[in-house]
Amino acid sequence: MRKMPIVTCLFLLAGAALGQEKPAEQPASPLAGPKVSAPEQKKTLAQRDMEGRVVRLETRPEAAALDLLSLTPEERIAVDKVLTDRAALVSKTLFDNMEICLKVQNARQAGDRDGMPALMREFREAAEPLFTPSLLDQLAGMLPEAKRAELRSLVKEYLTALAEDQENRAMNEGKPDEGAPRRGPGPDGRAGGFAGGQRRAEMNLTIRELAQTLAATVAERRERTEALFKAVNATPEQESKITAILRGPERPANARPDPAERGEMMRKIMEVLTPAQRKLAAEHLRNR
């Protein structure tokens, strides 16, 4: 039997494959019905967990809502500036009014409902720049009408869902949740209704902002201190002494060290270190 060259076999197989016709596309069954496209998912901030409870946002709802909008680069720049300015104002308000901020936070944690109305009024007055104009109004002012309305709708839906969810939980557990907006009269003594609930929601969100800023500031300072300890290979005794220096003497809660005080603190820290450690500390501070 004569053997066919391999190349010839390959050409014949390729030709056979090319010569095959594609199977005709089967027509849709008349019983299949019209194609149904998946519905577009609704934009919402009011996400729920497995138990059906509203998941609280880690950020302000106004900021979270911006991520759901189709913003142009110019609009994003404008709203980001508002958020940056807001963060700076929150930090300034916190340190200018540290004493009342800590009193409010401690009273809320202790559940001191009798003392809350007076504290909240004092806090509201001290933190007025954070409330007027509201963050929502400032952000909405940077957007065109359609996106402005969508922003307000997303925030309102979230706050309403959160209020209803927390009211239901409070009734079931027999105690109120101070962190949620409520529609009845609040600790500040103002009227209830939706407007009253909105005021309390704004108050609670602002207090949470301040608490988060304080926690972030404390964490940042702790990291910087630990980085210094590591850079100079401080002993436990040195760490204890430096920590005491950084805490400083008793001063008003809203006071921060001025440049002269900071210089004196650094001088005392250097005295705790050995000559070799001082060089390491100076290099660390230069490269920070």
Protein model, in words:
By secondary structure, the protein is mainly α. It folds into two domains: 61-215, no CATH class; 233-286, no CATH class. The protein has twelve helices and no strands. It is elongated and about 65 Å long.
Radius of gyration: 31 Å
Strand content: under 5%
Shape assignment? elongated
* Structure class: mainly alpha
- What is the subunit arrangement here? single chain
In whole angstroms, how far apart are the ends? Answer: 86 Å
How many E-type strands?
A: 0
Major sheet description: none
Tally of alpha and pi helices: 12
Rounded mean pLDDT is: 81
Helix percentage:
55-70%
Tally of distinct domains: 2
Could you list the spans in which at least 5 consecutive residues all have pLDDT below 50? 6-18, 178-191
- The SSE string, one letter per element, is HHHHHHHHHHHH
